[in-house]
Specification:
- By secondary structure, this protein is mainly alpha-helical.
- The protein has a domain at about 45-125.
- About 65% of the residues lie in helices and about 0% in strands.
- The protein has helices at about 5-10, 40, 45-75, 80-100, 105-125.
- Helix 3 runs antiparallel to helix 4 and helix 3 (about 45-75) runs parallel beside helix 5.
- It is elongated, with a radius of gyration of 27 Å.
Length: about 130
């Protein structure tokens, strides 16, 4: 190795070796719309937007699952505490979805954990 970079070789007037035609570079395997610029992956606005969407969608799905479980347990022979725990857990997850959509993703995460724990605790009474 001579220790010179490609740019130094080009500046010295030497030709760069031609790359074989049949080999594809890793970036050539992706479609142009799939190729991300390095700046796009670390864009703080994009990261925050993704976190808000994740918190909102996860909260909404857990709230719907809690409501469905509450309705299913209410029609069965389970004690009244079980469907109430599912409903309270679903309400906490719905609040987490709302806060997550407003950008309070850390609080939304803790509320999601709390809501699922309330649902799991209520399931233990069954």
């Amino acid at each position: 190795m001579s220790g010179r970079g490609d740019s130094e070789i080009a500046e010295a007037g030497e030709e760069r070796p031609a790359e074989p035609e049949g080999l594809a570079k890793p970036d050539d395997l992706l479609e142009p719309e799939d190729q991300l610029e390095p700046d796009d992956a670390d864009d703080p606005a994009q990261v925050a937007r993704r976190a808000r969407w994740t918190a909102a969608v996860t909260g909404a799905l857990l709230a719907l699952a809690g409501l469905a479980a509450s309705a299913g347990r209410a029609t069965g022979t389970a004690p009244a505490l079980v469907p109430a725990a599912y409903a309270v857990g679903a309400a906490v997850c719905a609040l987490a979805a709302f806060l997550g959509s407003r950008g309070r993703t850390r609080r939304a995460l803790w509320l999601l954990v709390t809501g699922v724990m309330v649902m799991a605790l209520g399931d233990q009474f069954d």
